[in-house]
Amino acid sequence: MSAAQHRATEKVLAATGVTMVFGGLTALNDVNISLDEGRIVGLIGPNGAGKTTLFNCLTGLYTPTRGQVLLRGRQLPSDPAKVTVAGIARTFQNIRLFPNMTVLENVLVGRHIQMRQGPIASVFHGPGFKRGEREAREKARELLEFVGLRGVESEAARNLPYGDQRRLEIARALATEPEVLLLDEPTAGMNPQETEAARQLIFRIRDTGVSVVVIEHDTKFIFSLCDSVSVLVQGEVLVEGSPETVRDDPRVIEAYLGKPREEVEADVAEAAAHQHREDS
Ligand SMILES: Nc1ncnc2c1ncn2[C@@H]1O[C@H](COP(=O)(O)OP(=O)(O)OP(=O)(O)O)[C@@H](O)[C@H]1O
């Protein structure tokens, strides 16, 4: 196989046989998940299924008990800061901003990880440092614009409405210039308009070439957003496939959705109609 062919078939991110045991509890058991370039993958499953644990394994926060995670075919470093530099960024289920810092400063935190300005550069504040700082600010402003946060750069992050704080978290993650973005419940606590704006934002992020993995409880959101969906139940992948395959799978309806089939079908029909309106 030529190098070009090899690259074309290479997964951006691939977890194989990932098992995570905490004391006596197996939170993940032999999980396989992979992400193709420019794709959006959804991860759904009931509370405690292991979704966040898997994210923690994909970002170097946890070293799997067994199995491996490869980023572009290379073993992931077991240090979250190195994983960020290697190209994986994430947001958290509970927003983790620096509440007293300004909106712009929060994005600059992400940017600095990418700039890798060492302590020596900061002490001397030479011309290179100043230029780097100026460029970082420009880039941070562009990112704020991109996520739809305009005119609030000097506000303290804690003063932003909830939905905007989620956008800011995404801007900060994008500031590290990731290849892969992991979003942990990006629409939690959002109203329907904010949820729709978040969906459009994720599409725009994907369109810039970033591959995305999303954890969400809102299945309608996931089915209308993702190219493929994995369903985790009790630490194992129950089903993986296209949104259509997953939502029609009786095991998913029974084991995860846990609601009457008619109700699920109504949700599914609504999601499909939504997608149809989008496509037409
Ligand atoms: N650091 C840890 N130490 C011990 N047990 C843990 C740890 N992290 C997670 N667990 C356990 O692993 C299991 C999976 O938890 P996890 O948070 O990954 O689930 P989840 O699918 O993200 O759930 P939710 O939807 O509620 O966020 C749970 O039983 C949880 O209690």
From TrEMBL:
Please list the GO terms describing molecular function: ATP binding
SUPFAM superfamilies the record matches: P-loop containing nucleoside triphosphate hydrolases (SSF52540)
Q: State the UniProt keywords alphabetically.
A: ATP-binding, Nucleotide-binding, Transport
Boundaries of every ABC transporter domain copy: 13-259
- Keyword Nucleotide-binding part of the UniProt annotation: yes
Asked if the Swiss-Prot or TrEMBL record annotates the protein with the keyword Transport, the reply is yes
What CDD domains does the record point to? ABC_Mj1267_LivG_branched
What domain of life is recorded for the organism? Bacteria
Q: Which PANTHER family match?
A: AMINO ACID ABC TRANSPORTER ATP-BINDING PROTEIN, CONSERVED COMPONENT OF ABC TRANSPORTER FOR NATURAL AMINO ACIDS-RELATED
| Protein name (record) | ABC transporter ATP-binding protein
